Amino acid sequence: MKRAFLFLAVLVVLAGCEEPDPDLVYGYAEGRFRLLAPESAGLIETLLVAEGEELTAGSVIAHLDSRLELARLDEAQARAEAAEARLRDSSQGGRAPEIRAARELLAQAQAQAREARDDLGRVRPLFDKGVVPRARLDTAEAAARSADARVSELRERLTLVELPARENVIAAQKSDLEAAQAAVAAAREALAKRTLASPGPGRVERLLREPGEMAGPTAPILRYLPTGAMVAIGFIPEAQLGRFALGDRLSVACDGCADGLTVTVTSISEKAAFTAPTIFSDRERARLVFRMEARFAGDAPPIGTPLRLRRLP
Distance (Å, rounded) from C-alpha 133 to C-alpha 180? Predict the structure, then answer.
């Protein structure tokens, strides 16, 4: 802002000394800087760039501490492997040892059911003769029914063990596997965000953080100037405002600048950048200036260089 007022002062002095060129305005070179920050907060573990260094697209700038993210990725991968194993087992049906164990349990239950029926066959005649009480018969009958039920249960279990899991069980396990795989992808994405890389070519202008300091979305690591982000800031007097429009090409002149520099007008403010306290005459109206921004077509002078911008025919 101070720099802008300095140029305005120069403009006013020049306007008072000589007839102004209607196609000439004054300004300075400026850069459209960007602040680069990681998407997730954390301690800076390593910083791989220096001030003034040129970056290419994808250049690694810094690594944040990622021990927690690595642990979460390992956990997610283990869960995904377990879910995949469960689905594979369910799809293949019971294994040979499981089937053999189920058959042995069924054989034991069938033997116990035969014993229970034999006991019931001995107790019933004794009850009919009045040798044993009714309670003894009831106990034998209950034992026989329980043994038969156990045989039916184990027979069904053997059938289930020999067959693959039911369709709804397999579908549920597929969903579990998909959820576990999504968790792995999310963990990998979180881990990738612990590395800050350049979004495009440019130059490191200033480092704002050092290794060991916290960085995050609101705590950028550096400020850099993207390639092609140099602009010319000009100030158009109110009387000349109608001579400049968006898209106009302007020649650029400055002390030490190369010949042939040009810019293209990209914006002109709608409000005056400087206004006298009171406007009573055309002389006061001449002090009104409007901020203009124009982008360089190629090479550009250093930031802060005073510029003379002339409208090309």
Answer: 62
Asked if residue 288 and residue 237 are part of one domain, the reply reads yes
Task: Compute the radius of gyration of the chain from its Cα atoms.
Answer: 43
Nearest C-alpha neighbor of 298 from the set 241, 260, 250: 260
Pick the closest to residue 164 from 56, 99, 91, 107 (CA basis): 91
Please report, for the domain that includes residue 267, its CATH number.
2.40.30.170
133 shares its domain with 218:
no
Contact 173, 121 (CB under 8 A): no
Q: What is the CATH number of the domain that holds 203?
A: 2.40.50.100
Q: Give the number of other Cβ atoms within 10 Å of residue 246's Cβ.
A: 11
Do 19 and 124 belong together in one domain? Answer: no
DSSP type of residue 219 = B
Q: Spell out the residues 6+ positions from residue 40 whose beta carbon is closer than 8 angstroms to its own.
A: 64, 190, 193, 194, 216, 217
Gap between the Cα atoms of 21 and 3, Å rounded: 22
Same domain (yes/no): 236, 126: no
Residue 48: domain span: 36-65+194-225
Beta bridge partners of 226: 202
**Which tens digit of pLDDT belongs to each residue from 109-150?**
888 888 888 888 887 888 787 778 888 878 888 888 888 888
Q: Write phi, then psi, for 227 (nearest 5 degrees).
A: -60, 130
Tens digit of each residue's pLDDT (9 = 90 or more) over 84-100 = 888 887 776 656 677 77
Identify whether residues 199 and 241 lie together within a single domain. no
Rounded to an integer, what distance in angstroms lies between the CA atom of residue 209 and that of residue 206? 9
Q: Could you report the per-residue pLDDT of 181-232, keeping only the tens digit for each?
A: 999 999 999 999 999 999 999 999 999 999 999 999 999 999 999 998 999 9
